[in-house]
Amino acid sequence: MANKKLTIEVAYALPNKQQIVTVEVEEGTCVLDVVKQSSITKAFPEIDVDNVKMGIFGKSVKPVQVVKAGDRIEVYRPLIADPKASRRARADKKAKTA
C-alpha cells in the first residue's frame, strides 16, 4: 500500500513580495524536506534552507518535525535588529524628548 499524500503549504514573505507554494508530499515527510520540495528558493534564492528558522502556523518548529495534512510551513526571514535593543533605543529616545 502506498503512503498517503498530504497537501502542505510553504509560505515566505518579504516586505514587498510574498509567495505561498502548495506541495503534495508523502505522509511522514519532515518540515525541511517539504521546504526543499517546494522549490521556494527559485523565487527567493536568498533563503538558506538548511539554516533558516521555520514554523507551522506561527509556532516555531524544528526542521525534523513531521508535517500533518493542511499544515502551512512559514519560512522566517532573519531579524534585521535585535527587538530588545530596538525597544530600548525607542524608550531612550522618548525619555530624552519628554
Task: Outline the fold blueprint.
Layout lengths: L4 E10 L2 E10 L4 H8 L15 E3 L2 E3 L10 E4 L7 H15 L1
Parallel strand pairs: 1-5
Antiparallel strand pairs: 1-2, 3-4, 3-5
Portion in beta strands: 25-35%
User: How many strand units?
Assistant: 5
Succession of helices and strands:
EEHEEEH
Give the CA-CA distance, first to last residue.
70 Å
Quick one: CATH superfamily? Beta-grasp domain
Largest beta-sheet details: 5 strands, mixed
Shape: elongated
What is the CATH topology assignment?
Ubiquitin-like (UB roll)
Query: What's the domain count?
Result: 1
Compact description:
By secondary structure, the protein is of the alpha+beta class. It contains two helices and five strands.
Describe this entry's structure for a reader.
The chain has helices at 31-38, 83-97, and strands spanning 5-14, 17-26, 54-56, 59-61, 72-75. The model has no long low-confidence stretch (mean pLDDT 90). It has a single domain (5-97), classed as Ubiquitin-like (UB roll), CATH 3.10.20. Strands 2-1-5-3-4 form a five-stranded mixed sheet, covered by helices on one side. It has 98 residues and is of the alpha+beta class. Helix content is 23%, strand content 31%. It is elongated and about 65 Å long. The longest helix has 15 residues, at 83-97. The protein contains two helices and five strands. It starts with a strand and ends with a helix.
